[in-house]
């Protein structure tokens, strides 16, 4: 027998990175908030896992992200203070690419527009300062010291605990099978119950188009793989000389983090990835074709690592047509959707969670999110 209808102020569908942030922001306002997730967050089946996520400010994707990043950084530090947990670690970020490449030109533009401090180096000088790197000699390099990494699963867990401490209720292992909206309410049907609320926030990542069919033309889900390589030399253990890095090559854009556990380095390819038709049936086995480009990159551009990865993981990118987020309040219904984060969204979760709460409660937000509106695609 299904549960009786329950009334809430807001229902959040999907409780990963963005959903947990929305739950926290809404519950802090004293609202009765329900979170529903088909898994048990934090989990490793979506887009908010893999130990770490990079946070940076000289944003090569677009300078309009920078004000959001300033606020997001403040909110991450606030969450650290409230939770008593270590969530954010500062670290140099090395961006490397051919002259005029998206990575270099975009980061320098964002820094110039917003007065961010960066250092521009030759590839030779960068490799002297960061000897764990082996960069193409023709590359230009930009180093940002206002960067770092987030402990991703820790962050999701901390936001969920803070939300629940403010009165939110989270229902794990409940898959949503129906969403119906009217101008003044929403009804969510799950595998275990039927719930009504005055509003809803949809933050279900690669399952967004299944929940909201109008997003089918706007989101392409890609299967991505991550690898961890054991240390072969002590160079990576010197944290001040072991940066985060993103290197733009003709074969693709590759990134990685230092040996945060003192034993292995995480490396992945930001570009590419197989298209996934159904996120629930994605192949999570690592294939030789997954390993080959990352192995080749690690062998060519990194020093002091063993040639074979000791661990791996599969995650999912929800790609928008232009690589920018899809963040909107529905024009007719009390529904906010946060989607299409295109592999670079986790660092924004607290600020977009706050923006979602403002859109739900106030009908508008002072945070500069207008450039992320789905309406840019008509």
Characterization of the model:
There is one protein chain. Strand 19 and strand 20 form a beta hairpin. 49% of the residues are buried. The longest helix has 18 residues, at 66-83. This protein is globular. Helix 2 packs across helix 8. It has eight helices and 20 strands. Strands 5, 6, 7, 13, 14, 15, 16, 17 and 18 form a nine-stranded mixed sheet that branches. Strands 1, 2, 9, 10, 11, 12, 19 and 20 form an eight-stranded mixed sheet that branches. It has two domains: 6-48 and 153-217 and 322-377, FAD/NAD(P)-binding domain, CATH 3.50.50.60; 92-146 and 220-319, 2-Layer Sandwich (D-Amino Acid Oxidase, Chain A, domain 2). It has 378 residues and is an alpha+beta fold. The termini are far apart. The model has no long low-confidence stretch (mean pLDDT 96).
